[in-house]
Please model this.
Amino acid sequence: MSDDYSLAPFDEGGDLQPYQPDTPLVPTDSEWLVPTPDFLSEHQSYADAPVQIFGADFPGSPQQAQQGINQLADAFVSDAAYMRLDPALANIAANWLKSSALLPMGHVEKRHKYNLEGFHIPKADMPAVTSFANTMWRAGAPQRFVVTALWWLNEVSKKAQQQPQPTAGEISDKEWDQIERRAEQDRQAGENELRTRWGFQFATNMRVVRRYFAGLSAIEREHFENAILPGGQLALNNADVVEMLYKQAIGANNLPSGGALAAEIAQIENLMRTDRKKYLSDERLQARLRELYTARDGG
Model:
């Protein structure tokens, strides 16, 4: 099995250190920061009520719910860097999520002017969406930021709904033995498929995936490491799953269009000319540029 394909951490070379974006994710200007209240201590009157996240029942404790929300918010801030979103606005959005998800939410008056017609928003979710949009409108966030953030939350929600498959801790020893016996064969098949898809970019793309994977939260990494696909295949041995991680790493599902597409290409090409060393050291940025070229050229 080639190390190029493995997502398991190793010590040599430092390839698995989390990717560090040039722009800090946490702004230093305090006026951007929305205080995160201690929900569990400030809302004791709800202690005996069922735990809900944006109105949906949560089976765990309030502490577990808040922990999960905090991890989700931190994941958004991390992904926002890959999606090239303003880090200050990402921090505001994350703090809104941390402070609002467990609060009872009734009618919320619309105070923003974003166009959200492209989203199918269930009536039950409208107060939360409106509250979020109002918050970002007050912060001066552009349309693209809000649309991208809502797209991200929708993708997270869809993934959560697609997770009924058993994990390594939920199957019998006999079933696990069968999975382990086929794991190396599946891993090699996945590598071969990705080599076919990616060609000479295989090694580079896998480094991008490994750095992105290392930067995920511990819970997210554990989910991928233990997830078992239908038929008994470990998720990380599946070429489609690895390619999905690659696309998430470079923001391939959030490419601009029109003038914004041309502007981002020009920005990266300018970096190539003015600071080639920096450009060549950022394989994620190089991969994104290739995706931008493909989008521009209609590939």
